[in-house]
Amino acid sequence: MKHLLKLLDLTGDEIMEVLNLADQLKYEKIHGIPHRRLEGKTLGMIFQKASTRTRVSFETGMFQLGGQAIFLNVADIQIRRGEPVEDTARVLSRYIDGIMIRTFDQKDVEDLAEHGNIPVINGLTDFAHPCQVLADLMTVREYKGSLEGMKMCYVGDGNNMANSLIVGGLKTGMSVSVACPEGYDPHPAVLEFAAGYENFSLEREPAEAAKGADVIFTDVWASMGQEDEKEKRKAVFGGKYQVSEKLLEAAAPGCMVQHCLPAHKGEEITAEVFEKHSAEIFDEAENRLHAQKAVMVMLME
Ligand code: CP
Ligand code: NVA
Questions:
Q1: What average pLDDT does this structure show over 117-125?
Q2: Sorting pLDDT into bands at 50, 70 and 90, what band is 8?
Q3: Which residues sit with their C-beta closer than 6 Å to ligand 2?
Q4: pLDDT of residue 247
Q5: Record: fold of 7-129+289-300
């Protein structure tokens, strides 16, 4: 593994390797065992979109590993004034040991990796959110004991989360069922990948996708950058693409609920379900820290 650009680039074994190291680092953190494995190293974090979890977990994670992180808001660096991504990549490669980037276009992340010579980590694009899904898989394994043979359901927009969950779930041996409204399907490249798996299905009815699920995921109806479509999307998704007590009746007993956060309660998830499953959901948020520390150690040590 040289970069983490999208889960499509990783093998199932590589994903499991990240999860195993994440479990170990979490254990070490809980028991106060030092793990300063990136002493003296620096991570640059380029943000073109808002963030709470990603920024804080990467920055804290790097500190716990003995290194440091630099927050680079796109509004403040020369990219905003037109300096090409490939030049930025070549310059940053001379100073720092890794780059995390959150932006719109997946191509910018791929270009950064191609033109620089340090590891690049995708902290969310319109196409993918691999760091989140590594934390999600870690959390499901923590609660369920394994991933192999479990059924994952995703209800909502076929967005970056849906894309990464489908790939991550299938590569780790889970069955994956997705329910999206027509016109809001996952990315064609992801559907092409999933077409090779018998244990994948794309549905229009959430209750169909939720049948027998061991874990149900959802995410906002309008992602960052889609603010103008908010009302239109509410009309399309409203009243149907929501994780509710009623939907959970179709799932397996003890079904988990996961949400990458931030959540819009009353839209993609009811407040009742959110609170009932809040322990799992905030464990999922915590696991961002441990999973990303594992990614950084694997790429930068
Ligand atoms: N889930 C997630 O990536 O959260 P932030 O947008 O707060 O980083
Ligand atoms: N799909 C959401 C995820 C936020 C973590 C977005 O891209 O805004």
A1: 98
A2: very high
A3: 124, 159-161, 219-220, 223-224, 260
A4: 98
A5: Rossmann fold (3.40.50)
For residue 69, the model assigns a pLDDT of: 98
Read out DSSP for 153-215? Answer: EEES--SHHHHHHHHHHHHTT-EEEEE--TT-PPPHHHHHHHTT-TTEEEES-HHHHHTT-SE
Eight-class DSSP state of 7: G
Rounded Cα distance between 216 and 154, Å, is 6
* Identical fold between 7-129+289-300 and 132-284: yes
* CATH architecture observed for domain 132-284: 3-Layer(aba) Sandwich (3.40)
Active site residue ranges: 102, 129, 132, 219, 260, 288
At residue 44, φ and ψ (nearest 5 deg) are: -95, 135
Query: What's the token pair of residue 147?
Result: 């991933």
Structure tokens at 23: 């479990």
CA 254 vs CA 96, 132, 251, 276: distances in Å = 45, 23, 8, 12
The reported pLDDT for the residue numbered 203 is 98
pLDDT tens, residue by residue, 199-218 = 999 999 999 999 999 999 99
Protein residues with CB under 6 Å of any ligand 1 atom? 51-54, 124, 132, 260-261
State residue 148's pLDDT score: 98
- As a whole number, the mean pLDDT across the chain is 98
Extents of the domains making up the chain? 7-129+289-300, 132-284
Mean pLDDT (whole number) for 138-143: 98
208: how many CB neighbours lie within 10 A of its CB? 13
Instruction: Indicate which residue's Cα is closest to atom 6 of ligand 1.
Output: 51
Is residue 89 a contact partner of residue 111, using CB atoms and an 8 Å limit? yes
